[in-house]
Specification:
Largest sheet: none
Shape: globular
Helix content: 40-55%
Strand content: under 5%
Number of helices: 5
Order of helices and strands: HHHHH
Distance between the termini: 47 Å
C-alpha cells in the first residue's frame, strides 16, 4: 500500500473514532435559553434564596446544585423536579408559582449544575427527556 493511501485510511479511522467518542454522551444537549436561566436566577433571588441560597448552595433548605444535589436527584427527570417545585415550593406558599416561573427555575437549576444553554426555551414536553445525571 502506498504512503498517501495509508495516511488517508488512518485519517478516516481517526475521524470515525472521534465521532463515536463525541456521541458517547459526554456532551449534554442544550435544553433552555440563557434568558430563561437568567429569569430563573432573578426568581431565586426574589423567592428562593432565603432557604436555598442565592447560588443554590443551600441555607435552611437543601442545596440545589453540585454533587450532593445530583446524588439525590441523579437518574430522575427534570419533569420530576418541575413537579416537586410546582407542588411544594415556595415553602408555605406551594402552588403559587406559574408554569413559566417553574420552568425558569428548572432552567436555572440545570444551568447551575453544568447543563449548557441553547437557542430555545425549556418547554414542558421536553422535561421527561432530561435526566439529571449523577456526579
Amino acid at each position: 500500500m502506498k504512503q498517501p493511501a495509508l495516511s488517508l485510511i488512518l485519517t478516516g479511522l481517526l475521524a470515525t473514532a472521534l465521532v463515536f467518542a463525541e456521541g458517547s454522551g459526554a456532551q449534554r444537549a442544550a435544553w433552555f435559553s440563557p434568558a430563561q436561566a437568567q429569569r430563573g436566577q432573578a426568581l431565586v433571588f426574589q423567592q428562593c434564596a432565603g432557604c436555598h441560597g442565592a447560588r443554590l448552595e443551600g441555607r435552611y433548605g437543601p442545596l440545589l446544585s453540585g454533587p450532593r444535589f445530583l446524588s439525590k436527584w441523579g437518574g430522575r427527570s427534570a419533569q420530576e423536579l418541575r413537579t416537586y417545585i410546582a407542588s411544594r415550593m415556595p415553602l408555605g406558599r406551594a402552588g403559587t408559582l406559574s408554569e413559566a416561573q417553574t420552568l425558569d427555575l428548572v432552567a436555572y437549576i440545570l444551568q447551575a449544575n453544568g447543563y449548557p444553554s441553547g437557542g430555545q426555551e425549556l418547554k414542558p414536553d421536553s422535561l421527561p427527556q432530561i435526566e439529571l445525571t449523577k456526579p
